[in-house]
Design a protein that fits this description.
TIM Barrel, eight-stranded parallel beta sheet, 16 helices, globular, binds flavin mononucleotide
């Protein structure tokens, strides 16, 4: 069977005729041949991306208890096998904030995407749009908002960190509006930075500091290096022009380190709400009280998230908190979910427990590091295929039918 490579004119609708027409095979570039699951992409990314950036993507904070809990708690949830249901026609499409998507999945905001693969943000956005799902651009991207807007055909979501320099925050919101971003994703769980040991050990900096160990590391990834030589940018694109001496890497790094604002509070959320007339998604909610407060502050959606286990180590897994949050606020705001989603089965589990859709972080970052745009497309198609097979084997024909009944 041939893999159908989506183009801008061939955006998947979500309708799948069983047996699934989407198989990752002959049309994929040689470097992605034989990759059938996210773990395959992860292994390839580990070989192709310099260690400093692979570790940055992979790691959780401190002892990584929350990182592990996200995956372990998902895996514990068992799905109910159903037989003799006609599932010859399936529909994986749904809507997120009124936008039709071919799959209940969006790409999560990821800092330093352009260090996984040259111009990574543009490539990931293109792959998401071709697949008919939202792409979220991080404040801490390498490409700028304008770089991505210019290179892609449709609106994307923009993720905002509120920094101490509120004038700069306002200008970011205005730039996102000028770029016609269709939603603002306000991340509220990073007012101080959880430590990732690997980043400290590796001396993570953007672009990489040229120490002997890093030079060796980069030299052993010639493909990555060759592509980087033609990349649009080497440092944080959204900050360029704002930080004095933004061409000096140290100036940018120092500015960022001092800009995260420990004073961030709900009145800032109200301020952002007043600046942004469009859809507002508050990301980083992990309990019912905060979920209710987000609704009150005017959020259209929340993301139940612990930042992929990268912030408060010791926090519960997101999937363990999802049901009570969805129950408490699901009728007021759309409840999105992230943390540990590595398969279509995981998407099914989260939807069964009350999520409208999942954001995926590492699952697509591995695809990006493994094969750029084609790698991200492969990651999305893997999730699509796994979800459609899982829907079939649980006797579920459409996303709207997914609820607690698909669980044991
Ligand atoms: C490499 C990496 C960079 C991230 N950068 C950001 C960021 O800039 N802004 C943000 O809101 N979340 C960021 N996150 C968190 C993700 O948006 C998302 O919450 C998390 O990755 C979900 O968990 P998962 O990776 O297990 O799917 C980042 C996560 C990773 C793995």
């Amino acid at each position: 069977m041939e893999r159908v490579v989506p183009t801008a004119l061939d955006i998947p609708t979500g309708m799948v005729t069983m047996p699934d027409r989407v198989t990752i095979s002959s049309a994929a570039p040689q470097s992605l041949k034989g990759m059938t699951c996210i773990e395959d992409l992860r292994r390839a990314a580990r070989r192709r991306v310099p260690r400093v950036f692979f570790d940055y993507a992979e790691a959780g904070s401190y002892a990584e208890q929350t990182l592990r809990a996200n995956r372990a708690d998902l895996e514990r949830i068992t799905l109910k096998q159903r037989v003799l249901v006609d599932v010859s026609q399936l529909d994986t499409a749904t809507t997120i904030l009124g936008e039709t998507v071919s799959l209940p999945v969006a790409l999560a905001p990821i800092g330093l995407g352009g260090m996984q693969w040259a111009d990574g943000e543009i490539l990931a956005c293109r792959a998401a749009q071709a697949a008919g799902i939202p792409y979220t651009m991080s404040t801490m991207s390498i490409c700028s908002i304008e770089d991505v807007a210019e290179a892609v055909g449709k609106p994307f979501w923009f993720q905002l960190y509120v920094m101490k320099d509120r004038g700069f925050v306002r200008s970011l919101v205005e730039r996102a509006a000028a770029a016609r971003c269709s939603a603002l994703v306000l991340t509220v769980d990073l007012q101080v930075l959880g430590q990732r040991h690997a980043d400290v050990r590796n001396g993570l900096s953007v672009p990489p500091a040229l120490k002997p160990r890093t030079i060796l590391d980069i030299a052993s990834r010639p493909g990555w290096t060759a592509r980087m030589l033609t990349a649009k940018r080497w440092t944080f694109g959204n900050l360029a022009g704002h930080v004095k001496g933004a061409d000096s890497v140290k100036a940018v790094a120092d500015w960022v380190a001092h800009q995260f604002d420990a004073a961030l509070n709900w009145s800032d959320v109200e301020w952002i709400r007043s600046l942004w007339p469009g859809k507002l998604i508050i990301k980083g909610i992990l309990n019912v009280d905060d979920a209710r407060a987000a609704g009150k502050a005017g959020a259209d959606a929340i993301v139940v998230s612990n930042h992929g286990g990268r912030q408060l180590d010791g926090a519960p897994s997101t999937i363990s908190m999802l049901p009570r949050i969805a129950e408490a606020v699901g009728s007021e705001v759309e409840v999105l979910f992230d943390g540990g989603v590595h398969s279509g089965q995981d998407v099914m589990r989260a939807l069964a427990l009350g999520a409208r859709a999942c954001l995926v972080g590492r699952a697509y970052v591995y695809g990006l590091g493994a094969g750029g745009e084609a790698g991200v497309a492969t990651a999305i198609e893997i999730l699509r295929k796994e979800l459609s097979v899982t829907m079939a084997l649980t006797g579920t024909r459409s996303v709207s039918e997914i609820d607690g009944r698909v669980l044991n």
